[in-house]
Amino acid sequence: MTGNHIDILARNLRKRNQYLEQNKIEAYRLYNVSDGQWPIAIDIYKDSAVIHVFDDLRGLNLKQLEEEIKKTVNVKWFFYKDRTKQGISLPGGLPKEVEIIEYGHKFHCNLSDYLDTGIFLDHRETRKWIEAQSKGKTVLNTFAYTGSFSVYAAAGGAAKTYSVDISKTYCDWIKKNLALNGLPEVTNWVYKMDTLEFFTYAKRKGLKFDIIIIDPPTFSKNKGKDFSVQKDHPKLVNAALEVLAPGGFILFSSNRKEFKLRQSALTKCRVTEKKDTYPFDFYGSFPHRCYIIKSPGGR
Questions:
Q1: Which residues neighbour 224 within 8 Å (Cβ) at sequence distance 6 or greater?
Q2: Which of its termini does the chain have fewer beta carbons within 10 Å around, N or C?
């Protein structure tokens, strides 16, 4: 780490301090790949740094890196995530779980045991926007992961939230995050189901949703079937349109850099790309793309 990079860390922190304090945010990105020559991103979770590695680290002294980070921000623990080998975490600290606050909401994070920590920081502003849209609405959160969108929607006054994820681990995590924020189970339901299977179930039950959130993984495998967001997103969106309430909308997001929405393969609908969803601490990176999808007659 050079002196120039020390200056970058200090400058980035100065830019973020007021925003973090005013909005009660305890987890944020301090350093993006685009900030300098090193192939890393640095996220801060209270007293811990999560370092995402995007390329070969030969030539980068990790102990020196840690010392320079400590000179900028008060952290004690370091965790390395090897993004070149999806699913592999480099050694870098003790097992660590922590509760963080984001816009006043609480989330349980695990910094050591998974490639991802339990919350996608790049969707912070998207979550806040969903919160503002949710009062009195029925909200469906698919591929819900740990339920952060559901927490925001429920806190924003949603009449009811449905969180759907195929993983029991994540369904339990969703319930933990809901409980952390004092959000009752009776109006915030959690389903351990495949998303497409849930859409079939919802259609059979006559359920309709004012807001449907679809933020799928880039690739996954379930019951021997491979899922690719680029190939399979029309199937997801078309199924969601069948259970979308009049006047409602779908928020569709993908973090695949080369993603292209295939509108010609969608049931007749109106699509607008939403471009104000990047938190400013992610500018210069490519975290995701977001689209608002409505039925043809929707306002």
A1: none
A2: C
Cα 219 to Cα 232: distance, rounded to the nearest angstrom: 10
CA distances (Å), origin 279, targets 95, 265, 288 = 28, 31, 11
SS3 category, 287: coil
Could you give the domains of the chain? 3-110 (3.30.750.80), 121-294 (3.40.50.150)
Contact between residue 130 and residue 213 where contact means Cβ atoms under 8 Å apart: yes
| CA dist., res. 151 & res. 181, Å (int) | 8
| Structure confidence by residue, pLDDT tens digits, 215-273 | 998 777 776 677 778 888 999 999 999 999 999 999 999 987 888 888 889 989 999 99
The single-letter DSSP state of residue 91 is P
3-state secondary structure of 199: helix
Instruction: State both tokens at 128.
Output: 């806040």
CB atoms within 10 A of CB 126: 25
Band of the pLDDT at 93, cuts 50, 70, 90?
A: low
Residue type, 275: K
Lowest mean pLDDT: which of 129-133, 216-220, 293-297?
Answer: 216-220
Instruction: Kindly list the distances between the CA atom of residue 163 and the CA atoms of 192, 211, 237, 264, in Å, as whole numbers in the listed order.
Output: 9, 12, 17, 29
CA quadruple 123, 125, 129, 132: dihedral sign: positive
Q: Which pair of structure tokens corresponds to residue 266?
A: 């969608």
CA distance 66 to 48: 11
